[in-house]
Amino acid sequence: MYSVVPIRNMLQIFTFSILKTFTKKSFITFSFLFFSQQMFAQLTDSFQDSDFLNDPSWSGQNTKFTVLANQLKLQAPAVSDDAYLSTPSKSINDASWEFYIRLGFNSSSTNYARVYLVSSQQNLADTLNGYFVMVGNTADEISLYKQTGSSKSKIIDGVDGKLNLATAEVKVRVTRDASGNWQLYSDVGTTGNYISEGSVTDAEHFSSSYFGVYCSYTATRSDKFYFDDFVVTGNPYVPPVPPSFKDIVFTEIFADPSPRVELPETEYLELFNRSNNAYNLSGWKLSDGSSTATLPSYKLNPGEYVLLVASSSVASYITFENVVGLSSFPSLNNTGDIIVLKHTNGITIDSVKYSDDWYRDDEKKQGGWSLELIDPNNPCGEENNWTASEAENGGTPGEQNSVFANKPDLTAPKLMAAIPIGDNQLRLVFDEKLLNEIPIAEHFNFQPAVDIDHIDFEDQSLRVLTVSFSNPLQRNILYTIDVQQVFDCSGNEIQASFSTLEFALPEQANDLDVKVNEVLFNPRPTGVDFLEVVNTSNKYLNLKGWSLATFENDSLGKLYTVTNEDFLLRPGAYLVLTENTDVLAGEYPQTKTENVLEVKALPSLNDDTGSIAVVSEQGVVIDHFAYTKDYHSVFIKDEEGVSLERISFEETTNDPDNWKSASTQSGYATPGFINSNARNETAIAENITISPEIFTPIIGQPDFTEIQYKFDQGGYVANVKVFDANGRLTKQLANNELLGTEGFLRWDGDRDDGSKARVGYYMVWFQVFDATGSVKTFTKKLAVAAKF
């Protein structure tokens, strides 16, 4: 269907469109002109109107000046004094100043003129911040000075003696760009040819309010200063846009330069401006927690990199672009450190808590290679967004990284731990960097209710929040915290399924509050050792500062730290300690990785005989286990990859009869969950059950059956067979298989040759035996059915 617009309406629309377009263009033109006038300042005065009080308006010691023959002239009383006039001027960036001056005398230390190009104050005889051209004085020169308060310093030293004349007549031109680069020119005698007096870079003072003249004179020279043809153009100082969090980011970290690959054997950090604004880094602070360096003046434009090195290392990086030396460059720790970049206002612009694990390469983490940020537009990715450089020389200082790629952060943050710190604070640990804004207390819900006093970030990593309470937490009470509307650095809101945790005040551990529960000391060549412990107490325990060690002759060996961070182990919790979680999970896919804590190193666990102890922060041995490979089942042909499991928490740790090889069905280890040999401490009846007793293979519901078993102990070896009604072997389900305390075997109604079993009755023959020679036999009936 087509809509028809009346001609009148069409004309109205057309007319409105023209008006709208005209209005928009007019507005744009007006805005541009207004903007230009604001940005481009101009001052001219040749005194053709014989007036210095208007257009422009000069003010100061007006009674000491006059206009004579279209020139501004000093006409002061015949006494030794000084005099000044000034007029508003904001020109300083990409600016130029031109003027004519005539001194009707040979200048001296008491008879000279200053022309203030830049001044923060109207009164040029008072303290101020600015720049002026000195005309005359003892050296009879034309020089550029900087004034800070009452202190004056020469920054361009003009040629001496140029004004050593009975009457000095000169035209002066000065220019300054937006970076503070000054050029001074003079034309003595007004010949039309300017000669350079020198150049300098100085940006200490970056704004202006006034332009003016100042005369120092004696009684005989009080009417012999003449000024004319002032022309001042340029842009006013515009306060820079303050940087926001992550406008400038760390993109490369070279913390371990030895052994050398190809890069200089000195540390560096690389910054990248990912914003649309240029920033001067002057006064910004770089720190690593133990030392702080102040950055010098350096303009970092959008899309540019800058390399920060120690001042002593600048020469080593002479062939690289955009290198800035710092006199107090922080010493970067090889294994990990926290680096922070702050603006002059104290606001954090970027921070990174790096680790040598971020290399993801055991060879490169040894030194000579840099860590590179993968995606600068995802500066919040932390460990997921950093990796070892792939450049042949070991890094890419001052240029785009070798691993540059699009890697956006689309994953919401998770609350990983809630750990009380004393009675009045709770430490909340998240899995990634949060938005640099303190969440509000109303979004933290506690059961039972607690009153929040305030919330803070623990450090610059922005991964940990500290919640402080108005009243202390109570002991022996289980609390729940639910966190809402907390966002990661990229703006992703916390995952609902990872926003709630339980916690309680931790207590000091006593002997056997934590028990050794499983040990793998002889892993496969592709595997790793692990130790599993269980909190068998009713306490919440903080494992910060705990350690592991060998334990022989009642003496501890070298201590290996479990964690230097707060880690709360709740009652009944299983915890696996290993050097590589990924390898462990690859060897045993059923691993409960949420119950695994990766450690830097484990004590040496020998393949034949060894020991291991769990030691509290106070140095108390909480539990220890001395093992030998003889604890394994005699029916295990190869102990590689088979863990030893504890049978009972009620029995002593070092009772050999309290340990069994993990079952075949468990995959020979149960990291992070109940042992396959764990004994139910309440008496149970040994039994074999079939569920269901009738099933229909392939097309039935269900189409298989389970032969379930339950024993009062693990370690039995089983042979399980299925016979038909005529006593013929149909299927062997287990052949000398090591069992745990309970489990099941599955039969899909197939035969050993792969064909389908016939409809009819069958018998399951289930025989187990142990190392003592004890044999138990069970028989059960079941039926294979069919649909008609």
TrEMBL record:
Instruction: Give positions of region: Disordered.
Output: 381-405
Cross-referenced PROSITE patterns: LTD
Q: Which domain of life is it from?
A: Bacteria
Q: What region holds the LTD domain?
A: 241-356, 499-629
InterPro entries to which the protein is assigned, alphabetical? Cu-Rt/internalin_Ig-like, Lamin_tail_dom, Lamin_tail_dom_sf
Q: Where is the signal peptide?
A: 1-41
Concerning Gene3D superfamilies, the annotation shows: 2.60.40.1220, 2.60.40.4070, Lamin Tail domain
Q: Which Pfam families match?
A: LTD
Keyword annotations of the record: Signal
Name of the protein = Lamin Tail Domain
- What organism does the UniProt record list as the source? Ohtaekwangia koreensis
